[in-house]
Amino acid sequence: MGKLRAAQYACSLLGHALQRHGASPELQKQIRQLEGHLSLGRKLLRLGNSADALESAKRAVHLSDVVLRFCITVSHLNRALYFACDNVLWAGKSGLAPRVDQEKWAQRSFRYYLFSLIMNLSRDAYEIRLLMEQESSACSRRMKGSGGVVSGGIETGGPGGPGTPGGGLPQLALKLQLQILLLARVLRGHPPLLLDVVRNACDLFIPLDKLGLWRCGPGIVGLCGLVSSILSILTLICPWLRLKP
Questions:
Q1: Cα 136 to Cα 75, 129, 180, 191, 218, distances in angstroms
Q2: What pLDDT is recorded for position 22?
Q3: pTM
């Protein structure tokens, strides 16, 4: 499935590049047809995915963390609805239900897809916040025995530091620098979370473009879809890179 998705978005990116460089209309048409066939093939292979998404939602209901339970459950429910709409689209495109309004069902499908991605990114943001708080507490404990120096060489004590009143802009800049370093350390130390953030962020451009909320163009959509697909394949090859639960 991941390879088909990667091939589909590679065709989208290639078609955009050929159009920009003035390739022959016949070649562009062949690339668009290949992309359409790959899309239809993916829809066929996703016929049972709604049930899988519902089962995942049922499992997520039992998570102890309330925020994770909400984000993951709602995400899976939206994915189930997205796959259901996708099944209707497949029936229409394959000729089983020729009267299906494909534009309407496509819009519904992408709306559910967008909601699912928003929930995924909300979950990522929540996990990042928890990890940053843990890392910040660990840094504070280390600082007590290091004279107010955070690992990385940034001093937090002394004149003009965060504890000095009236620090103004330099104090704000220091706090921002510390937060960025903390975020980088957290993501570097948790590759599954980093990959999930990048993958969800790339996927977000697809429904935003299809729903007309932010027109990115076929080139950006193709590139983001290809990057997301490669990351998905990577998590299949290396299961430890998949974010859990």
A1: 29, 10, 12, 19, 41
A2: 87
A3: 0.86
